[in-house]
Amino acid sequence: MDRRESVRGQRATLLQYMTMLLLSLMTSAESLAEVTLSVHEEQDAGIFIGNIEQHVFIEVNDGETLTYELLNNSEYVTLDEETGYLYTTKHRIDRENICPIDNLMNECMLELDVIVKPDEYFKMIKVNIIIEDINDNAPYFPEENIVLFIPENSPVFGAPFGTDNTAIDKDFGINANLSYHLENDNGFFSVKKEGSLLLVTVKKQLDRETQDIHEMKLIAMDAGSPPLSGTATLIVHIEDANDNCPTFAPSDSILVKLPENEPPGNVVARVQATDADLGSNAEISYSYSPRVSETSKKLFHLDSSTGIITLLEGINKETPLEHKLTVYANGELCPPATAVVTVVISQIFIGQPVIGISYIASQDNDGIVLKENEPEKTAVAIFEVNNSKNIPYVLYIEGDVPFILKPYDDKYLLMTSKPLDFELEKYYDVFIVANDSTRPGVQHKKFLKVKVTDVNDNPPQFTQDVFEFFIEENNKADASLGKVSATDEDSDENGLVLYHLGPEALQVFCINEETGDLTVRTVLDREKMEMHKIEVFGVDQGNPSLSTSTTVTIHVLDQNDNHPHFITSEFSFFIPENFPLLGEIGIINASDADTGLNGQIIISIVNSSNVFVMDNVRGVLRCSADIDREKEDLYEIWLTAKDSGTPALSSTAKVTIFVLDINDNAPKVLVPKNNLSCLPVPVTAKPGSTLAGIYAVDIDSGMNAVMNYRIIGAENQHTFSLFQIDPSTGNISLQEQIAIDNYGMHCLLIEISDSGLPKPLQSTVWVNLYINKSSGPCELQAEPNLTISGPFIEIQGRCGNQFSEIHCSQLTFIIGLSMMMASTMFCFVGTCMFINARRTNKKNYRTQNCEDSDIPLKLNQNFNTKDWTTIQ
Predict the structure, then answer these.
(1) How many angstroms separate the CA atoms of 271 and 286, rounded?
(2) Tens digits of per-residue pLDDT, 297-326?
(3) Which of the 8 DSSP states describes residue 176?
C-alpha cells in the first residue's frame, strides 16, 4: 500500500507541474523570461550563485509576496523559496563529470526551470547556470612510454618527426592549453605541439655508433593557475644509416709462400674487413682489383662473401712464381678498402719431403677445434717429414700465431704458446713450412686451420659503475624508474645476460629480467625515505653462470604534499604592559616535512595586527607598539604558516597574549570632587557614626589596585583624635563626642595609596568637615593652606595648625612586607589555577571555532568625579 501511495503522489506532483507548464505556455510571450548565471566548479556547499529577482523584473501588487519553486530536482543547486537565492549543495559540481570531454567544445550549463508565484498568477523562468572551469585536472599521457625511431643521418633542425601520443587534460579553455618540453635530452632534441601531433626536432647531430637509444622525460604543462603537469618517457631509437665504410686493419698486407705441389682446393689466405654499421648497411663483398691479372684470377679464387682465397687448379711450370692479389672490400655507396695478398710459389725439387700430420685435438669440417680456456702448451697435432732422400729439413711456423713447434722423436709437436682468447680471435690460419737447410728457397708448406670456441670466462659488465634514477614522490603505480644495461663478451648463451634484484631490495621494486627496465610497484613517499639503494645482478646463462652486480640509487624528488605544521594549534604568552618595542614575546615553532622551497615556511599574522610583528629570521613573535593593559588586557591573533611550493600550502594557529599589570597608575579620587568640597557635620553626631566617605579607584589590577586610606595632615592633634578613617574603605567617622571647642572647620589631608610593588603610588585629597549647629550649606573659598610641622611632613594648609607626615614605624614595615608576600603568593596561586584550567579545557578549545575560543576582554570603565552632595 505504501508503494502505491508513493506512486500516486508522484503522479499527482507530475500532473501539477504539467498543468503549471501548460498554463505558462498559454500566457503571453512577455511572461517567459530567461536568466543566465555562472558558478565555478568544485565549490563548497552554501556558495551563493545568484538572485533570480535581480535579473527578472516582476511587478506585484501591494501586500503580495513572491515565492520561488524549482521544478527540476537538481542535486547540485538549492533554491530559497522566499528570496529567490540560488546556492550550491553538498554535491560538488564537477564540470568534467556533468559535461564529458567530448561535449566540452561549448559552454557547460545546468538548465533549470523556476516558477515564480505571486498570489494571483505565476511566471516560469528558465535559469541557465554556466559552470566555469577551474584547473583541477592535471594533464596525463595515455601511454607511459612513447617510442620514436629517428635515422642517425637526420639533418640538424631539419624536418621534425611527429607522433600522435599527446597528453589529455579534462579541463577546458586555458586550463587545457598544453605546452610541452623535454628534460634530460642532453641537447639532442626539442618538442612542440602542432595541431594534433607532437613534433620532435633534432637539435644536435646523432650517431648511432656512439649512442643508439635516447631516453628523456616528456612533460606536458597546462596554462592554468597554478599550472599542473604530467609526464611520460620519450624513448628515441636511433636507426642505423650507412655512414660507415668497410676498413681493413693496418696490417692487412699478407705474404703467403705456396709450394708448387699444393693440391687444388686448399686455402691460401683470408682477408677480413669490418663495417661499424648494422644489418644490410654492414654487408661487405670482396672482389679483385681490375689490375689483378687474369692468370692470377684463374689460379686463385676469392669468395666474395667470406674473403677466403683458395687454390683453384694445380700449379705447373708455366705458372708465375709470384702473384700480387689486390682485394677490394666493397660497401654500398662507399669507396673500396684495399688489402694486398702476395703469393710466392716455391719450386719443388726431386726428393722434396712431404709433411704429414697426425691430429691430437678434436676436429670438425673447418679444422681443429680448441676451447679458449685450454692451458698453455696444449698439444694440437704432430707433424712428420717424409723424406726419401734424407735431405735435412727444418720445420717452422710462418707468421705470428700463438703456436710453437717442439721436436719430438724425429717429429714435431704443435702446441699452444699462450692461452687462447675467443673474444680476441676466433680463427687462426697456421702455415707449417719445411725448408731445406742446404738449398735455400726449397720448401714445403702445410696449412692448418684452428677454430677457437667460446667458454664462459667473462662475467657480464654493466655499462655504468653506479646507476642513478630520479622520480617524483606520489608517483603512479608501476612507474618506470630507468634501465640498467650490461654486456658480456662471450657468445651465445654465455653472453646472454638476465637481470635480478639483490636479496635486500624492497619488494616494491621490480626489474624486467630481459631488458633491465626497473619499475616501482607502489607510490613512494619522500618524507618516509628520500633515497633507495638496491643491488642489481647481471647473470649470464653459461654453465656455470657468471654474474656481477651494480648499485642503483633511486632519488625520490619532493612534491609539495605536506602542509606546514605548528607545534601546537594554540600558543599562549604572558607579557607585562609597557613591554619594550620589538621585544621577543615568544618562539613560534612550525615545520614542514617537505624540502627545498616546498619546506620553506613564512609565518605571517592574518588579522592585520599593528601591535605585533612576526620575525621569520629567528622564528619569534615581537611587539611593535606600546602595550597598555588599561586599554587592552588580552590580544588574540591568528598566524598562518605558508610554504613556498607550487601550489603553496598553509596552516593556521591561534596566539593568545595576556597583558600583565604593572603599577603605573596612582589611585584616582572620585569623591570628593576637589579640595574645595566641604561637608557640614551636625553637632548631634554620635561617636562612631560615619560622617563622610572617600571613593577612589585604581585602574591597575590585583594588588596594584588594592587601596589604603590614612590621614596625613590635620588642623591640630585634637583633630586627629576627633576623626578617624577606615584604612580599607575610606569612610571617615567620629571618634569622640563633639564639644563646643570643636565647632568650626576641620581640614583633613587624606593619602590614598595602592599596594603595588616594588613601590606603591599615592594620591592626596583634602576633606573639609564643618561642625556647626546650622545645617546650611558649607562653602570653602580656597584650598587649605596649612603649614604643617612637628612630627609630620610639611604641608601648607589654611586651617592654621602645623603638622607633618608620621614616620613609618617598624610595625608598618612588617605589615608592608607581609602584604608583599601575600600579594606574591596570590599571583602564584592565580597563575597555577589558570594553567590548570587551560590544560583541562584544551581539547574543547581545539574543537571549537574561533568564536568559541574568544576570551572576553575586561572593559575599561569611565569614572567621573562626584561630590558628596551629588551622592546624597
Answers:
(1) 9
(2) 999 999 999 999 999 888 887 888 889 999
(3) G
> What gap in Å lies between CA 208 and CA 241, rounded to an integer?
8
3-class SS letters over 33-51 = EEEEEEEECCCCCCCEEEE
Residue pair 323/342 in contact by the 8 Å Cβ criterion: yes
User: Cell triple for residue 742?
Assistant: 570643636
Q: Is 64 exposed, middle or buried (0-12, 13-18, 19+ CB in 10 A)?
A: exposed
- Structural domains counted in the chain: 7
pLDDT tens string 136-170: 888 999 888 999 999 988 898 888 998 888 999 88
Same domain as 802, residue 673 = yes
What's the burial of 544, exposed, middle or buried (CB within 10 Å: 0-12/13-18/19+)? exposed
Instruction: Say if 11 falls within a structural domain.
Output: no
Short-list 431, 449, 269, CA closest to 368: 449
Task: Please tell me the predicted confidence (pLDDT) of residue 242.
Answer: 81
Q: At residue 637, does pLDDT exceed 70? A: yes
Provide the residue range defining the domain that includes 738: 668-807
> Do 198 and 67 share a structural domain?
no
* CATH number, domain containing residue 625: 2.60.40.60
Residues 417 and 501 in one domain: no
Instruction: Name 728's Cβ contacts closer than 8 Å, sequence gap at least 6.
Output: 707, 708, 709
Residue 311 lies in a domain: yes
Query: Which of these ranges, 54-58, 90-94, 755-759, 828-832, has the smallest mean pLDDT?
Result: 828-832
Mean pLDDT for the chain overall: 82
Do 801 and 769 sit in the same domain of this protein? yes
- DSSP type of residue 91: S
Q: Which tops the pLDDT comparison, 772 or 864?
A: 772
Going by pLDDT thresholds of 50, 70 and 90, the confidence category of residue 864 is low
Say yes or no: 275 and 364 in one domain.
Answer: no
Helices (H), 471-630: none
Same domain (yes/no): 802, 709: yes
> How does DSSP assign 316-335, residue by residue?
-TTS-SEEEEEEEEE-TTSP
